[in-house]
Amino acid sequence: MRALRKLISLEIRKHKLAGMLKGALITNLGILAFMILVVFIDRSELETYSDVFEALYLFIRAAFIIFASVLLSKLIIDEYKNNTITLLFTYPISRMKLMYAKLIIVLLFTFLNIIVSNITLGAIIVGINSFANAIPGEITADLLISELIKTGASAVYAAGIGLIPLYVGMRKKSVPATIVSGVLIVALISSGFGEFRLGELAFVSVSLGLLGMAIAFQSIRRVERDDIA
């Protein structure tokens, strides 16, 4: 376990992933600005706290699934494309542990950012509404508990979904293809009619999350078999 934590730390420093947090912050500021515009200035469709929290989650989930595809590109696909991962595999490091470290970084980055972003931006919007009174109703304990459970569960699904672009990236050995596939997945789960969204179906979210985990497992098996040509 200690060796895995060390590998994760080394990968973060090697790829300068701390800079991704700046990108996440800028993304959150953009989402917050848009939500303020819609909720407090336009005052069009989001009439309850449930509506606001749902819209907020949709934007955050979409943003960090795309972030996951970017991370996969930096950590794995780019190294496959440039064949530098072959050099890494000559080091006295377990291939499986190296791949586990890379994938854990993507999973944790996606999961934690979705959780933190939802809680932080939600709290800011509630705070602004205490002065603007644009959203009717009150924040109840039941609503908070329900939203926290929903956010936690959805963040788990989204973290798994964020791994699906790995399949395209490893087959094509293409960074653009990896990121584009992430965008297409977001478009798919955000599609629907009226207020219905495909990604809101628990079966769809769970299935796609499990598919992402299966793809990650298969990539580890592929590395273990030395099938990286």
List the helices and strands and how they pair.
Elements: H1 2-14, H2 18-42, H3 49-82, H4 84-88, H5 95-132, H6 141-161, H7 165-172, H8 175-189, H9 202-224
Q: Overview of this structure, please?
A:
This protein has 229 residues and is an all-alpha fold. 79% of the residues lie in helices and 0% in strands. The chain is built from nine helices and no strands. The two termini are 29 Å apart. The mean pLDDT is 84.
Q: Would you summarize the structure shown here?
A:
This protein starts with a helix and ends in a 5-residue tail after the last helix. The chain is mainly alpha-helical and 229 residues long.
Protein traits:
mainly alpha; elongated; 229 residues; single chain; 9 helices
